[in-house]
Write a structure and sequence with these properties.
This protein is of the alpha/beta class. It is built from 5 helices and 5 strands; from the N terminus they run H-E-H-E-E-H-E-H-E-H.
Length: 155
């Protein structure tokens, strides 16, 4: 009974994640997976969301230039976000955090400190969701789903 209940929760999470990311992309957001280690690989492969991710970021130089297993997503350093900041005009960056809880705050702080600027000169929009966390992932995805989308979006 417990195994069936767990399988049901996984299916619910898969649907919620897929629908949320699809909606974000439809509204112009660039989907970034931050963390190419076992957490990120497990979620991307297990939930089948590789086709909804635009960029994979990891701070470890030994994985830069490689590919997230099972996908054609190249792993890059965070500087790639500055190169792609013009995409923020379309909506911003939705960053899926696949890092340890200890590193989440550091990653958020570092990305905000980069001062990403869209081509318009406006600050790039950043939104974060922890994909493997003891916190309420359903609540985090609901917050992303309920974000105010930029004007001119398809929502």
């Amino acid at each position: 009974a417990e195994a069936r209940a767990f399988a049901g929760r996984v299916a619910e999470y898969r649907a919620l994640m897929h629908n949320t990311l699809a909606q974000a992309r439809a509204n112009g957001w660039t989907i970034v997976l931050y963390g190419a280690g076992h957490r990120g690989c497990t979620v991307v492969d297990g939930l089948g969301i590789g086709d909804l991710i635009d960029q994979v970021i990891d701070d470890r130089p030994q994985v830069a230039g490689g590919y997230l297993p099972g996908t054609d997503l190249q792993i890059r350093g965070r500087a790639v976000l500055a190169e792609r900041a013009e995409l923020a005009e379309r909506g911003g960056f939705l960053v899926l955090l696949a890092v340890s809880n200890e590193n989440e705050v550091k990653v958020k702080r570092a990305l905000r400190a980069m001062g990403l600027v869209a081509r318009s000169g406006d600050p790039a929009r950043l939104a974060f969701a922890s994909i493997l966390s003891p916190r309420d992932i359903h609540g985090e995805l609901a917050a992303v789903r309920d974000m105010r989308w930029p004007s001119g979006s398809t929502r």
